[in-house]
Amino acid sequence: MSGSVRPARPAARDERQLLLFSGRAHPALAERIAAELGTTPVPTTARDFANGEIYVRFEESVRGADCFVVQSHTAPINTWIMEQLIMIDALKRASARSVTVVAPFYGYSRQDKKHKGREPISAKLLADLLAAAGADRVMAIDLHTDQIVGFFDGPVDHLFALPTLADHIAGLGHRERLTVVSPDAGRVRVADRWCDRLGAPLAIVHKKRDKDVAHQVSVHEVVGDVAGRVCVLVDDMVDTAGTICAAADALYANGAEDVIVAATHGILSGPAVDRLKNSRVSRFVFTDTLPTAAATDLDKVEVLSVAPLIAHAIREIFENGSVTSLLDEL
Fold first, then answer.
1. CA distance to 168, 175, 192, 262, per residue, from 197 (Å)
2. Of 117, 108, 118, 198, which is closest to residue 151 (Cα–Cα)?
3. Contact (CB, 8 A) for 17 and 11
4. Closest by Cα among 316, 290, 312, 314 to 303
5. Which of 92, 207, 277, 300 is catalytic?
6. Sheet of 18-22: strands edge to edge?
7. DSSP state of 225
8. How many angstroms separate the CA atoms of 310 and 205, rounded?
9. Of 59, 113, 177, 265, which is most buried with the most CB atoms under 10 A?
């Protein structure tokens, strides 16, 4: 019949299909990832019942598809983790071929070991919950510690934002006067990688945290020469910004000319935005693993996208390529 539209031919049974799904926590990042992949997120209905229960339904068939579920664990973190678990369950029950969890920021990562008796290891619990829901694979960026990878029985793709952040810092100039600074002893290994990439010396801020009072940090001394230098404080996350701002104050007290903060995850809880605004730090550079709308109005805050990195990893997984090749730049 003239003017009729022929229905699309269904995909052959042996033709693999990549489908991207987004939770409600950070849809802007999922849209950027989809754009890099040349696709769009699968239309999804998600809503909350009056008592807070979450309902999810996908508006397209997922049978036999390789599914990637993007959800950053931002505030309210427990809500979005539960939504991701429900999405995974829905996909498994709809006969998805595989389900890969894409958690750019992996929640509870700071609870990766027991500091005292009768404490949980919540990062391991979350790994167990994802597996129980039906996740076949997990992808995350800059886990708080490498040991979290061992909490999963299946494959984990641990990606790093270092090349994205470091190359941006290098482009700002001052290469010959840069000093990479670790805000504590636990970040020294990561800071060493920064030093190798930027060809810069290393300094360390020695701090002592009150184990009985949350978010209380007293900085003691700076190890390394920072006088007259442009210091790049590197960390995996900035939460309330107390640690990083105290470290910056210590660097200025030891003669630093300028301080730049580079961190993958801008959690920015509670007083963080005010601390950033009032800090002497000239520039804060984050990635978009988490929504940072509260701080983007500050001139000193820059946000870089990790969408190309995640899209590249998704493509490698789907095409049975090598995600390890992404680590060759480190």
1. 12, 11, 9, 14
2. 108
3. yes
4. 290
5. 207
6. 18-22, 66-70, 98-103, 137-141, 156-159
7. -
8. 32
9. 265
Q: 37, 311 in Cβ contact below 8 A?
A: yes
pLDDT digits (tens, 9 = 90+) for 256-291: 999 999 999 999 999 999 999 999 999 999 999 999
Whole-angstrom distance, CA of residue 110 vs CA of residue 122 = 9
In three-state secondary structure terms, 19 is strand
Residue owning tokens 């992996």: 106
Q: What are phi and psi of 158, to 5 degrees?
A: -95, 105
Provide the sign of the torsion angle of the four alpha carbons 293, 299, 301, 304, taken in this order. positive
Q: What is the DSSP letter of 157?
A: E
Task: Report the relative pairing of strands 156-159 and 137-141 from DSSP bridges.
Answer: parallel
Q: pLDDT tens digits for 231-263? A: 999 999 999 999 899 999 999 999 999 999 999
Residue 116 annotated in active site: no
Residue 245 in tokens: 């701002």
Question: Which amino acid is present at 240?
Answer: T
Tell me 17's DSSP state. Answer: -
Q: How many CB atoms lie within 10 A of CB 293?
A: 10
Q: Where are the beta strands (DSSP E) in the chain?
A: 18-22, 44-48, 54-58, 66-70, 98-103, 137-141, 156-159, 178-182, 202-209, 217-223, 230-238, 258-266, 283-287, 301-304
Half-sphere exposure of 16 (CA within 13 A, CB side): 10
Q: Can the peptide bond before residue 10 be classed as cis, meaning omega within 30 degrees of 0?
A: no
Task: Determine phi and psi for 328, rounding to 5 degrees.
Answer: -65, -20
Task: State pTM to two decimals.
Answer: 0.91
CA dist., res. 157 & res. 266, Å (int): 21
Which residues on adjacent β-strands are paired with residue 35? none
Look up residue 230 and give its amino acid: V
Q: How many angstroms from the chain centroid is the CA of residue 188?
A: 19
